[in-house]
Design goal:
The structure is a single chain. By secondary structure, the chain is mainly alpha-helical. Among the domains are: 52 residues, Orthogonal Bundle (Arc Repressor Mutant, subunit A); 57 residues, no CATH class. Strands 1-2 form a two-stranded antiparallel ribbon. Helix 5 runs antiparallel to helix 6. The N and C termini lie far apart (67 Å). InterPro entries: Cro/C1-type_HTH, WH-like_DNA-bd_sf, WH_DNA-bd_sf. Pfam families: HTH_24. It comes from Natrinema soli.
Length: 161
């Protein structure tokens, strides 16, 4: 997927599926495999003229135009993004099924953060977190800088006076 995005980032106009595959060094099948997922997050737009990233081209004609993914224009939530994404990867009978490991994330009460445990969905959901400006549903790691501090109880310092 990274090659596809990179190629679209450097394109100056829409690319046909074949041109995109050739420039990205991937097969046309790879383009088709990722298309629905990239469209679900509104990262790409596809029409009869080809594929384009949902950002302005780096040309003088579009440089000042505001072309951004819809998820950045609207008040999208992580649940909204997970909902649209699961709709693209799950068959209808699994979507929203309380007994399905993925679909149950949408069942009441919805909890899209549970999808982070699934290796197929996790990278896409992390992308949704970034696009929707949602705080990470996982606890962030605490990092301690420098040497460990040696401390004494305050009661031990009173004897030194």
């Amino acid at each position: 997927m990274g090659r596809i995005i990179h190629t679209l980032l450097t394109a100056e106009n829409r690319l046909s599926q074949r041109d995109l595959a050739d420039r990205a060094g991937v097969s046309a099948r790879t383009i088709r495999n990722y298309r629905n997922r990239l469209e679900a997050f509104d990262l790409i737009w596809v029409d009869e003229n080809g594929y384009r990233l949902a950002l302005s081209f780096q040309t003088t004609s579009e440089r000042r135009d505001s072309v951004v993914p819809t998820v950045l224009e609207e008040n999208q939530t992580l649940l909204d993004a997970a909902d649209v994404f699961l709709e693209t990867i799950l068959p209808p009978d699994r979507y929203g099924d309380p007994n399905d490991p993925l679909g149950s994330a949408l069942f009441w009460p919805p909890d899209p953060s549970r999808l982070l445990d699934n290796p197929t969905v996790d990278p896409w959901l992390r992308l949704a977190v970034a696009l929707t400006a949602t705080e990470s549903p996982r606890n962030n790691r605490t990092v301690q800088m420098g040497p460990p501090l040696e401390q004494q109880a305050l009661s031990g310092t009173a004897d030194m006076n």
